[in-house]
What we know:
Blueprint: H1 2-14, E1 28-38, H2 41-51, E2 56-57, E3 67-72, E4 75-81, E5 91-98, H3 101-110, E6 125-131, E7 137-143, E8 160-166, H4 170-180, E9 184-189, E10 198-202, E11 209-213, H5 222-228, E12 230-235, H6 238-247, E13 257-258, E14 264-269, E15 275-280
Parallel strand pairs: 1-4, 5-7, 8-11, 12-15
Antiparallel strand pairs: 1-5, 2-3, 3-4, 6-7, 8-12, 9-10, 10-11, 13-14, 14-15
Amino acid sequence: MHRAFAFTTLLMLALPSATFAPAPRPAITGLCFVRLKVSSFDSAGKFYGDYLGLPRFNACWAASAGTCFFITPYQDLEIVGLDTQPTNHLLDTIGLWTEDAGALRGYFLARGLKPGDPASQFKGEQGFEISDPEEHHLVFLSVGSPGSLRDSTMQVSNHMIHAGFVVHDRAAEDHFYKDILGFRIYWHGGRTDTETDWVDMQVPDGTDWLEYMLNVAPNANHKTLGVMNHIALGVADIHAAEEKLIKNGWKGGQEPKIGRDGKWQLNLYDPEETRVELMEFTPTKDPCCAPYNGSHPGHP
Length: 300
């Protein structure tokens, strides 16, 4: 018996270390959806369906109830009703694509994290929920092949390029997104050249990103949080996008401008005062504060 134990021990020691290495992280490729809370589906429909020209469906990538506005077959905005308890946090959930949701869930479990149970909204889809260290709600999804979607001639954008949310503890968020999941800094900057108010964390296997909105007061009001917790839709030409918005009936008060990141942008606000940023895919001049450190997004 002792001999058998010794032989087994020697055999295990002789095996390459890769035999016992944890499974690699499955690819995380981009944004799938953002779920927003609204008080009026009619008003939200006017903004997202009419002004932004996004096709409307009742079947969403992850929500079991609500209204969805599809940007591409791979991306949608999910609109759900407000809870009975009033809240200033209207960006409810962010969905991200992964090549294998089941394997990614196992990856989290192997590192001591607590993802939710596996779930499936559609045939061939895998998914699960998890919250980051600051309780931002995430859903990771994988699917074989989505159906086709014909772009609307009214549609202003065909790519959601980022979603932003308030962050108070950057170190904790970096450990989750950067150290565990492999996100990387795409760009960072601030209102002045010496401060960092925004950190763009690009998915490890694509060009979409999540934006940390830093230095926000803990007691920030509804309007401020609507600016900070936002989404961005990519466009090739901000002026052409503005013309299409106006043609669709939008009458906004803001003009396009070049942001601190060197990109043309135009800020819109939905009826709940959640910011929807139109942003050109590529910069037109050098950004402030730091150079870009990743590939720029484009049309899907």
